[in-house]
Write a structure and sequence with these properties.
This protein has 509 residues and is of the alpha+beta class. The chain has helices at residues 37-47, 93-99, 136-144, 150-155, 158-165, 171-176, 181-187, 195-203, 215-227, 242-255, 297-305, 313-320, 366-375, 392-406, 462-480, 498-508; strands at 10-12, 29-33, 52-57, 68-72, 78-82, 88-89, 109-112, 117-118, 124-125, 235-238, 260-263, 267-272, 277-281, 284-288, 290-293, 328-335, 346-352, 355-360, 378-384, 415-423, 447-449, 488-490.
């Protein structure tokens, strides 16, 4: 597996402390509420320091929004279903550190070398083969792009576009959080023909309409994936379904360190005790010295609302103000014939609504590949983000119609099996929300938050934000008990071009 190679990546050293909780005389106990990336990261950080950890996950599987579960096709074939395609970028240092606990060389990930984007006129932008170092990556991209040309690069409003090349967190939020992503792109004279580049790769990755997404989040995404990192836009994907490749091994890693993992167990509330917290779940109450709430937005709001003696009124109001992005749909099709070999494993199609992307699972996932080899068929997945309708059946038909337009060889294919998911549980990073977004640390030193919707002042996003907040939440409780923490890494928290950084500083001053 190709390793991250950006020499400018930043390491925030582990906070000092005792190496193991056994040195305290009594091992602290911690409840981790949520078994997604954030919760499993926090659990790992605590268990590896000897803390007695219990993970509560309301679903029957681990991994959260990157989890998987068993289903059956009409012919009885067992398959693993999930919420679909996730790109594990090379600059996801904190997520990769978690996965390396059970896969040191990350051999269970396989590289995909491109992220092609199709626009409404049939033009394709590709990120394969670009230089990795800014600003040469941007210049090479503009040189060959059919939609973002060299002329467009020259016509950008340099003064207004300066934040894209000088991102630091949290300063970028102070500058841009009250502007929406769509308005910001118009202000910098971003070419209309190329807006699919920004919206597909960055904005719609948050499952949000660009008119509702903070421009600061858009700028941070540009920095993380392109202008602030030398890792490039190449990425890896698990070579097998998520449970087998990622979470089952990590669960074994945790249970080997005395962790108790309880799936299908929902936490309904917390009560503050003199020693810590009383955690209510499934009609029973258990006491813990510390808690990490690593739930999705709705779960976090519900638990805090049901826990009136936890935190302060202002903090509880901030948690209650968290919002979710519009719903999205995932439709997976098992077809009786293959898709043409020249097709990319992944294709972004956000310029052709309502379809946002097409994934060919049998090109990279072992279970799907084996099914396709056995049957002569293919496994195709369609996504629609920020859905503007609640008519899921109509949306399903529209997605398949778009598939047939883009990949005509699928028109006569028979659908051997199909599964559709309709979800509305991703955090919304709305205009002006940053200042009120709750952080990892809370008013209570024995309580921490984690998740991709939680604020952490680092240039991270999506799965990497979930992992970064998970390590930070573990460090928060470890520091409370005098135990050593874990390092946290990121791309540089500033622009890569010193002259532009000085210009930005002068402008803000």
């Amino acid at each position: 597996m190709t390793r991250p190679r950006d020499p400018r990546r930043v390491t925030r050293q582990a906070p000092p402390g005792l190496a193991d909780a056994g040195l305290l005389g009594r091992r602290p106990t911690a409840a981790i509420v949520g078994g997604g990336i954030a919760g499993l990261t926090a659990a790992t950080g605590l268990a590896e320091r000897g803390v007695t950890v219990t993970v509560f996950e309301r679903e029957g599987h681990l991994g959260g929004r990157v989890g998987g579960w068993r289903e059956r096709l009409p012919d009885g074939t067992a398959v693993t279903m999930s919420r679909g395609f996730h790109a594990f970028f090379r600059q996801y240092y904190n997520l990769r550190a978690l996965l390396a606990r059970t896969d040191p060389r990350l051999d269970r990930l396989t590289p995909l070398t491109d992220y092609p984007l199709l626009d409404a006129h049939g033009r394709i932008d590709t990120f394969a083969g670009l230089p990795r170092t800014p600003p040469w990556n941007a210049m090479a991209f503009a040189w060959r792009s059919p939609t973002f040309t060299r002329r467009d690069l020259l016509h950008l409003s340099g003064r207004e576009a300066l934040p894209l090349a000088t991102v630091s967190v949290p300063e970028i939020y102070h500058r841009l959080d009250r502007t929406d992503a769509s308005t910001f792109l118009e202000a910098i004279n971003f070419p209309p023909a190329a807006k699919h580049l920004a919206f597909e790769v960055f904005s719609r990755s948050f499952f949000a309409d660009p008119r509702e997404l903070s421009a600061a989040e858009l700028a941070t995404m540009f920095h993380l994936y392109f202008l602030g990192s030398s890792e490039g836009l190449v990425f890896d994907v698990p070579a097998e379904p998520f449970p087998q490749a990622l979470w089952d091994p990590l669960a074994n890693h945790l249970t080997g360190r005395r962790a108790d993992i309880r799936t299908g167990t929902a936490v309904t509330g917390l009560g503050r005790t003199p020693e810590g917290f009383a955690v209510e779940s499934d009609g029973r109450t258990e006491n813990f010295d510390g808690v990490v709430l690593a739930c999705d937005v709705s779960g976090l709001r519900e638990i805090v609302a049901a826990s009136p003696d936890v935190g302060t009124e202002a903090w509880r109001a901030d948690v209650g103000g968290l919002r979710t992005a519009p719903p999205f749909l995932v439709r997976r099709l098992w077809l009786d014939r293959p898709v043409e070999p020249r097709r990319s494993p992944f294709l972004g199609t956000g310029s052709i609504p309502p379809l946002d992307n097409i994934s060919l699972l049998d090109r990279y996932e072992g279970e799907a590949r084996r099914w396709a080899a056995r049957t002569g068929g293919s496994v195709v997945e369609l996504h629609a983000y920020a859905a503007a309708t609640e008519d899921s059946s109509g949306l399903e038909k529209a997605l398949e119609s778009r598939l047939h337009e883009i990949y005509p060889e699928t028109r006569d294919a028979r659908v051997v099996g199909d599964i559709t998911l309709w979800r509305e549980d991703c955090p919304l990073f709305g205009v002006g929300d940053f200042a009120r977004r709750p952080t990892v640390a809370t008013p209570d030193p024995a309580l921490a938050l984690a998740g991709d919707g939680i604020r952490i002042d680092l240039p991270v996003a999506l799965m990497e934000r979930a992992a970064a907040t998970g390590w930070s939440a573990a460090n928060t409780l470890l520091g409370h008990w005098g135990l050593a923490g874990h390092p946290i890494r990121s791309v540089p928290n500033q622009g890569r071009i010193r002259l532009l950084n000085r210009l930005a500083a002068a402008k803000s001053g």
